[in-house]
Structure formats: C-alpha cells, structure tokens
C-alpha cells in the first residue's frame, strides 16, 4: 500500500482534532505536577477529594487525576494515527466526559469514597464543555474532512 493511501497522523481534520486534544491533555497532565501552575501542591494526594491542589487555581486535581489526563493525552496521540481511531477517540472521550460531568454534579465537593476523583464546580463546567466539543467534533469533522471528486 502506498503512503498516499495511508493517512498520516494529523492528515485529516478529524486526526488534527484528536491530535489537538491529545496534546492539550498531555500538557494539562504535566501542568498538574508543576508548582506555580498548580497551587497548594503540598495537599496533592493520590486520589480522593482530600487533595486541595488547584490547577491554575481553579481545577481541583490529584495524582490520579493528572495520570488520567496524561493517559488520555497518549491515547489521543495514538488515535490520531488514523481517521477512524480519531473519530472513536473524540466520540468515546466525549461520552466519558459527559458521564464524568453527570457524576460530578452528584459528588463534587462531597466527602467520602464516591468522590475518588477530586471534582469542583470549575471541573464540572470544563467536563461539560469537553463532552460537547469532543462529540460535536467527532461527528462533524469526518464530514468536513472529506474531499469531493
């Protein structure tokens, strides 16, 4: 098969979308471990709502939360190698963030085992935005990326 028939990473719009989200998630995951970008690093815990570390002073994070962002970023980079993988990444990722948003509505700020990922209101708003953006891009970009003959 020729290289012209095999799309490269980022060669279609949907691949560029997955690549962009992958890069952003990697940056966010790394930033969650950097003092100055993350306030109250001394309270950073592995998991649970006891972590009061705040990425950019807004988003409550933990070590687990940061690792999930890093993994989500790596998956985005790998998915960007194909249009189908990119579309799946955006759609499934959007669904995951929609579920996380609904989950956050019930547990944000609560104490207890149910809030194993520290979530606050800013996280919930961001998760709702990510859910909508990823699903919309996953649905629309494949059509927008097609060329006519």
In spatial order, strands of the major sheet run 1-2-3
Topology, number of strands: 3
Strand content range = under 5%
The general outline is globular
Give the proportion of residues in helices. Answer: 55-70%
Low-pLDDT ranges: 1-5
Roughly what is the average pLDDT, rounded to an integer? 84
| CA-based gyration radius | 17 Å
Strand count, sense and closure of the main sheet?
Answer: 3 strands, antiparallel
Quickly count the helices: 4
State the secondary-structure class.
Answer: mainly alpha
One letter per element, helices H and strands E, the order comes to: HEEEHHH
Note the gap between the termini.
21 Å
Kindly summarize this structure in a few lines.
By secondary structure, the protein is mainly alpha-helical. It is built from four helices and three strands; from the N terminus they run αβββααα.
Task: Tell me about this structure.
This protein is mainly alpha-helical and 149 residues long. Helix content is 58%, strand content 4%. It contains 4 helices and 3 strands; from the N terminus they run αβββααα. The chain has helices spanning 13-31, 63-79, 83-107, 121-145; strands at residues 38-39, 54-55, 59-60. The protein has a 3-stranded antiparallel beta sheet. α1 runs antiparallel to α2 (63-79), α1 (13-31) packs across α3 and α2 (63-79) runs antiparallel to α3 (83-107). The longest helix has 25 residues, at 83-107.
